TrEMBL record:
Residues 30-82, 120-178, 194-252 form the PepSY domain. Transmembrane segments: none annotated. This is PepSY domain-containing protein.
């Protein structure tokens, strides 16, 4: 009986001693330098102007403030990006846009040089399309990733003024799929927009990198107040909606 009691006490002590170790490992924080590297990996050629470690009871996180006005919130245990905010107004062509609070899509694509790197350029994809449909012009263009059924291939998607939708494999320039368009993109007179196409493209590229390859003016639905927005397609995979009245970024999509 005495021997059994001693064994029980020893086992209980071992369990108690092991608990703090497990907790400390689960809550081990990444270093400040690691957090800075993650933030500057998103925005190269920026300087760190502010750092802060917030010891939240649920999720401790770093705030890394950068010289481009971005503040990157990074989970201090998992290295995940929680959110990215812009703390200063943008100034584009003399037009001040309101402060942003935008979370870019996860895993942003690094823009390659034309014809090299991750995918072919917009110009090369358009050339492949027009070799099949000479003279056809795009009404809408986006760079998107297909689903598992198609091996998660990245494609340039063109909706053309001849009624066809053409997808070009962004890895090698081959035609991926051709099909009739189900719905034609509508067009709106740019004169109805206070923000010009050039201003919208500059706002999009200054916030998410890359260069604009295609833009169109469209009107949102009733739940968004029928607002006019410029939908800007960037060559790094982002599609950015810029309010055509205020210059604010409304929505961001990525690959």
């Amino acid at each position: 009986m005495k021997k059994h009691l001693v064994t029980t006490i020893v086992l209980a002590m071992l369990v108690i001693l092991s608990v703090p170790t497990a907790i400390s490992k689960a809550q081990e924080l990444i270093s400040l330098q690691e957090a800075i590297s993650i933030a500057q990996g998103l925005y190269p050629n920026t300087e760190v102007v502010k750092t802060e470690l917030v010891q939240s009871a649920q999720t401790p996180y770093y705030i890394i403030g950068l010289s481009n006005g971005k503040s990157v919130y990074i989970n201090a245990t998992t290295k995940e990006i929680i959110q990215i905010t812009t703390t200063q107004a943008l100034s584009v062509g003399g037009l001040a846009a309101p402060p942003l609070n935008v979370v870019p899509p996860a895993a942003p694509v690094v823009p390659p040089a034309a014809g090299t790197g991750a995918f072919i350029s917009y110009e090369q994809a358009l050339q492949a399309v027009q070799s099949r449909f000479p003279g056809a012009q795009p009404l809408d263009v986006k760079l998107e990733r297909k689903g598992r059924k198609h091996g998660y291939a990245t494609v340039w998607n063109f909706k053309l003024n001849n009624g066809y939708e053409v997808e070009v494999n962004a890895a090698n320039g081959t035609i991926f799929e051709i099909k009739p368009m189900r719905r034609w993109p509508y067009t709106i007179d740019p004169a109805n927009a206070a923000i010009s196409q050039a201003q919208a493209e500059q706002i999009a590229s200054s916030n998410f990198g890359g260069s604009a390859v295609f833009s169109r003016l469209k009107q949102l639905g009733r739940q968004d107040g029928y607002a006019l927005v410029w939908e800007v397609t960037l060559n790094n995979g982002y599609r950015v909606e810029v309010n055509a009245t205020t210059g604010a970024i409304v929505k961001v999509r990525g690959l």
